[in-house]
Input
Amino acid sequence: MANWVRISSRSIGNHIRKRMNQGFIGSAVDINKSSGSSSALHGGRTVCDRNRRYLNSLPWNRATLFWFQRFKSTVAEKQQDSFLSSDTDDDQLSLDFPGGKVSYTSDMNFISESSQTRVPCYRVLDDDGELIKDTDFQQVSKEAAVKMYSKMVNLQIMDTIFYEAQRQGRISFYLTSAGEEAINIASAAALTEQDIILPQYREPGVLLWRGFTLQEFADQCFGNKADYGKGRQMPIHYGSKKHNFFTISSPIATQLPQAAGIAYSLKMDNKKACVVSYIGDGGTSEGDFHAGLNFAAVMEAPVIFFCRNNGWAISTNVWEQFRSDGIVVKGRAYGIRSIRVDGNDALAVYTAVSAAREMAVNEQRPILIEALTYRVGHHSTSDDSTKYRQSDEIVYWKNARNPVNRFRNWVQSNGWWSDQQETQLRSSVRKQLLEAIQVAEKTEKPPLSEMFTDVYDYPPPNLEEQEKHLRETISRHPADYPSDIPV
Amino acid sequence: MFRVKYVFLQFVCLLQEKKEREREMALRNIMGKRVGIGLMGSRALSTATCDVESGSAKSINLYSAINQALHVALETDPRAFVFGEDVSFGGVFRCTTGLADRFGKARVFNTPLCEQGIVGFGIGLAAMGNRAIAEIQFADYIYPAFDQIVNEAAKFRYRSGNQFNCGGLTIRAPYGAVGHGGHYHSQSPEAFFCHVPGIKVVIPRSPRQAKGLLLSCIRDPNPVVFFEPKWLYRLAVEEVPEHDYMLPLSEAEVIRQGSDITLVGWGAQLSIMEQACIEAEKDGISCELIDLKTLIPWDKETVEASVRKTGRVLISHEAPVTGGFGAEISASIVECCFLRLEAPVARVCGLDTPFPLVFEPFYMPTKNKILDAIKATVNY
Output
């Protein structure tokens, strides 16, 4: 059995923070330093922690603490002064500008566009699912591990069967999360029910983890009257208030600034919860990515921005998307603590999200996680990715780098899972899904009146008039309209 | 058979009465709560209003009236927030003066310079049940937020099957000509938003209207875009009651009775139209002037009733004529009142150019342009 370490979530956070200060995480950036400049980049644990210790020593309650934290930026400047001047021998070498003191240099050096080495990627399991020696990770109980693995299998099978259903013409559209099962399930497993999810659209596993049933998934895809969305949106646009999962919308990245607003509300209510908002590599090019991260940083809002860098935005690969070292390096540009993890390693994702959550909630700050992964499936049922990428690339990631198999190996090596359970689970889930689809298919669609409700809290006169007029038209030309919508 | 039908009809009437009673009760509850505690936590129905009661009133200008409304809003609801660029020190138009000092920097704060962020952030805040009052510094800069407004705010409730909503969101923006604003400090973009089911667009004409309408917008359970006529920020002075009051949304107001022609407008343009009405009166033309107030959902009933009376209608707005909201009103009136109309629907609007600087006087729908159109319509 590999040598693994039992570390609690609190100390994991501290541990990662410590490593960060030592330049392990996030400080691999090599800056062209000149002789005169002070190394202001040593460690991220600077003014914020100093402030926190100072503030925690005061006899204030949390609410007023927050008040003071809002003035942090000015305090930070002063603290930064003393921090910098301790390194700088000569006061004459520092300049005062809005935003704080900065030391100057007479050597004209541009910061390189990229560092010598890319930001390393945190992983716990190797490609075969064996624990890497001396790795730090958040231990997972047998119960949790089995649940995680089962849900990953659930997701895999759900994707396969719904995809097939679309191909058979039974639903109009579907998109899979193939290859991203570890991201979906492990990130969800590291959160609490109170944490609020703002998804992009490739994260149904988070809903699955929280207890959304296969029937509920099927109902949304069929747009029947049991669909919480009342048949208004395309398949896969799930939303569930009871699961704190905000309804998916197609526009990319719009959820990111909203996440900052929701997190700010949690902050104001003193809730021990955070927001987790997901985005793909492509989505980080949107203006809303910039808006969301900047707002979250300035408002000191407890959001985890989880970027699924799966290499492809439909047919656009990352080389055509950005020229930075992925997304993790962008965090620092906003003053946001960031980490890069192996998105196909369930334990690494779980550990990183646990630590991120702790920081977000306890320090009231945003965190950026970039999970490297691969989009095994096509973008959606409207896409054939063999048109723009090699089939053997897809096959390689599907088989050799499969996150589900990898985690299975680890779970099984602990003696927590067997081949027999595997077979049982797969056939059971498959059966449930087929049943759910059958039921969803037979369930009535929502009535016509639901087309006019919820545009506003109450339908205004123009909508009442339009409904009336439409009903008259329907009675005159019933053949123009689908017969499965109750009028 | 007849008996069954009779019983059934009685049942239907009873149900309707019950529904109406329930709505009235709800309104009463809200009205009751309104005094003192205000509307904390509860979502006011969009028709919940009260008359502008008699009480102490002060002569103040538009930005002060808006300032008062914001003070009231934050006072009566601890979950109300005001944010946007430069709102903390009082705002570039002083609409947010005193709020940060009084309610604290956690509730009244500056945001980074990013309209899509401001509105997105506001949607998130509102989705959690807060009243998010976002300021866009000039309506001319609202476009980066257009995606968030149209694709997100307007559809938030509908797409979620009413599981979620961002009804607590109000977006305020100064709009309209100011004499020297040019392309980017004078725009009237209301027509873009009137084409979006799911949001409301409200434009006040005066300080007293502004306070009551803004409070209604803030408390309305739907996302609202509230355009404030910047020309009137200092210029318009009116007696404004000092207490908390609301004016109804989606109710147009006949602000001048007449019998020969109906004029429809909103915001700052109404004062120009009123001058035209006064002059037309000297020529024996009796003009009825209607302030639409809410552009969507708009009060077709009031406008239609007026047109049925006068048989003529003229619409005026600063925004360019092509595709302006006047076109919607015109088309609707023609649909309902074609046979009653004595003359084509007239529109006196801005020209189809970007809002020019030195040519502003030529661009604007002036009193004389309106007067000429009134006469032409009456003499058709």
User: Anything to note?
Assistant: The mean pLDDT of chain B is 90. The CA atoms of residues 216 and 246 of chain B lie 5 Å apart. The domain at 253-379 of chain B is CATH 3.40.50.920 (Rossmann fold). The two ends of chain B are 57 Å apart (CA to CA).
